[in-house]
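Section 5.1 Outputs to date
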Amino acid sequence: MNKLLLSASALAIGMFAASQAMADCNGLYLAARGGVVKHKFEDSNHGSNGSITNDFEKNKFMMSGALGFRYNYFRAELEYIWRNKNKVSKSETLPGSTTVAGYDYTFKSQSYMLNGYFDLAPYSWLTPYVGAGIGYTKMKLRGSSYYGPIQNPAWNASETNFTWSVGGGLSVKVTNRFNVDAGYRYYDMGDIKGSQGIEKNDITAHEIYGGVRYVF
C-alpha cells in the first residue's frame, strides 16, 4: 500500500511539474535577433542577372525585434527587421584607352513582418522549428556613374513591396521561459527600379540569425 501511495504521489508531482512547465512555456514573449543577410538582385526584364547582382551579394549585418505569443506547438509574432546599408563602388580602365569608368550604388531596406512558427518538440530542451511570414519591405536604391570626366546624374529609386519569407531553425530551452534560437530565412522582396528607372530588379535575400526569446 505504501509503495502504491508513493507511486501515485510521484505521478501526481510529475504531472503537476509538467503542467507548470507547459504553462511557463506558453504566453506573450519578446524576441531579439541578429545575424547576416545576403541580397541578390536579378534583372526581371530580361530574366538574367542584372549589372549589380554580384556586387550586392555581400553579407551585411541585420537585427530585429519581435512581440509574439506562444501556445503549445505554435508561435505568432510581429517583427521589425533592420538591415545595414550596402554600399558598392567600382571603377575600371576601359580596354584600349586611358578612360576610367565606374559607378556607386547604395541599397538599404527594412521589413515589417507577421510570422508564424511550428515547434516540433515545444517542451523539450532542444527543438527544431519551421516558419513563414508575410509583410512588407521599404527599400531604397541610389546610384551614380561616370565615364572619364563625365559625371552622369545621380538617380534614386524607392519601393514599398509585399514580402514573404520561409525558413527554419533550432531552439535551445535554457529555462521554461528563456530560449536561444538559431535559424535561416529566405525572403522575396519584390521589384525595385534600377539605373534611372529603366530596368527592374527582383530582390531576394538569404538570412542567417541567432536570437533570444523570453516568455512573460
